[in-house]
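Incident log, entry 3
Record: (S)-2-haloacid dehalogenase (222 residues)
Problem: checksum mismatch between cached and fresh output.
Input:
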Amino acid sequence: MTNLAFDVYGTLIDAQGVVSTLSSYLGTDKAESFSGRWRDKQLEYSFRRGLMRQYQDFAICTKEALEFTNNEYGSPLNEEQKEDLLDTYTHLPAFDDARAALSKLSLSGMGCFAFSNGSQEAVSGLLEKTELSSYFNEVISCKDIKSFKPDPEVYQYFLDKTDGQADSTWLISSNSFDIIGANAAGWKTAWVKRTKEAQFDPWGVEPTITVSSLSQLIENIK
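Fresh output:
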């Protein structure tokens, strides 16, 4: 059986959905750069904790990354505003193409799983709020083994949980580090390149397929 593992933040859910809240505090121009820096540090902290085997919940990485970014920008946000932004992270919007694509894929006979660095509670809550939860067989969280993508152990954990095989499992992600990690684990991969400006890491590795929208998956995954 073919199983589809969907990355959540940045693939199904728009992690830049915090920009509108940030704009009310910082103005539009600064909000976009602040949000991008916050996201970069969030991922960096997860990578570092994974390598050091000093696990903390992804929500902690998010909070610490916000603190760093705020300090770097000269502390424009007060404590109440930072708490508001962290709350915004729990109800980010889904990308416009997510619901229709998942509806078709969930009826295709393939297994559909949410596969995330976020905790099962956080991801399940987010999928409920965006009305995507019904399309998934299960939410599989890297928190269960206290690590983060792209640790090889998390991709093996997914296979163990789903009783799947690497060569019949697809990772769908807009994050190239995730695609490269899954490729190293022997998976098939679909890189969701949502913008022309998006760059794939030049590691001599290519995704199995590249799509610009989730709607293209149904016709390209066999």
